[in-house]
Amino acid sequence: MKRIAIITGAGPTLGTGHLQRMALLAHYLQADGNYEVNLVTEALLPDELEDLRHSEVSQTTSLIIRDMRDSDKDEMDRLQKIAPVLALDDAGPGGSLADHRLNLLPSPPGAQNDRDYNPSLFLYGYNFARSLKKLENRQLQRSIDLVIYPGANPSEKTLARYRDLIPSGKSAGFFYNNLFQVTGSQSLPQKLENSFAGILLSSRVLLTYFGISLFEGHAAGCRLGVLDPGDYHNSLTSQIDWSTLYNLGTWQDIDTKKVKTEIGQIIEETENRPSKPGEMYRDIIERCSRVKDIINAIIS
Questions:
Q1: Which end of the chain is more exposed for a tag (fewer CB within 10 A), N or C?
Q2: What is the pLDDT of residues 91-140, one digit of tens each?
Q3: Angle, alpha carbons 23-173-235 (nearest 5°)
Q4: Residue 122 φ then ψ, to 5°
Q5: Quick check: 123 and 287 in contact, CB under 8 A?
Q6: Helix, coil or strand: residue 242
Q7: What is the rounded CA–CA span in Å between residue 235 and residue 233?
Q8: What whole-number distance in Å separates Cα of residue 92 and Cα of residue 90?
Q9: For the residues of 135-185, what is the DSSP string, one character each?
Q10: Spatial distance between the Cα atoms of 34 and 14, rounded to a whole number of angstroms
Q11: Structural domains present in the chain
Q12: Of 283, 267, 263, 293, nearest to 164 (Cα)?
């Protein structure tokens, strides 16, 4: 049995997307039965994946998959002394030295990892996939006009800025930190638990920024209003060619009244088509299978 080490993380600079998609890949590969998967991370993992956690890369590893954005040459050299490295979305000096490279996301203009990314290989998050599976035999109606993802742990100031963008007369809610709260409601936030995908599948429009929530909202069939924190993220958003994506610019130069009007127009233009979780879940599994084929080709 081949041992695969997956190095990943989460935090203020990395976000949660790298950890979530590698948690999904680890779960999928481990369930396949042909691999022993070690998740090398200090980040919080779902309880059912804790058995895969390791503090370091084993010397008996056959392949190292690194998904933490940019690496340096010293780190890559240390890893390659143990096993070949498959670098994911690595635009750092170390990424160009990796044995294998794969871009699952668009790269910043002028980045060293200048290979085109392959949208069909993008991996969604573990929590999204898990909640989709629980819903796969259902069909959901889109009863929420606007759902907002303001980041994992938004400040009250951030939430207030988003509230200012909600069009009058539209139903809206926030989801973050495993909670969901309808705006204007006096009730306490609800625990999302396994209904994370259900929130997206029940929403007509998602307001977010470049990150995994953007891709998961797209998979869930939402129209997407994207308001990025700055030019770096917006340069990545600008490379995505989806007819359902509306690039609203950045917070740095926002015209609140104009953006609020644009969001209202997006909601009005969105058809209220029911969602089909089963089809989405099967697509997620097919994506994992494609990445597994690449891994098999490397270590066979």
A1: C
A2: 899 999 999 999 998 877 766 555 567 889 999 999 999 989 988 888 88
A3: 60
A4: -60, 135
A5: yes
A6: coil
A7: 5
A8: 6
A9: TTT--B---EEEEE---SS--HHHHHHHHTTSPTT--EEEEETTEEEETT-
A10: 30
A11: 2-124+285-299 (3.40.50), 140-275 (3.40.50)
A12: 263
How far apart CA 194 and CA 192 sit, in angstroms, is 6
DSSP-derived 3-state class of residue 100:
strand
Distance between CA atoms of residues 207 and 266, nearest Å: 10
Q: Look up residue 171 and give its two tokens.
A: 């139903």
pLDDT at 13 over 60: yes
CA distance 39 to 10: 13
Identify residue 10 by its one-letter amino acid code.
A
The SS3 assignment for 257 reads helix
- Check: CB of residue 63 under 8 Å from CB of residue 84: yes
Report the candidate in 178, 221, 181, 177 with the shortest Cα–Cα distance to residue 201. 221
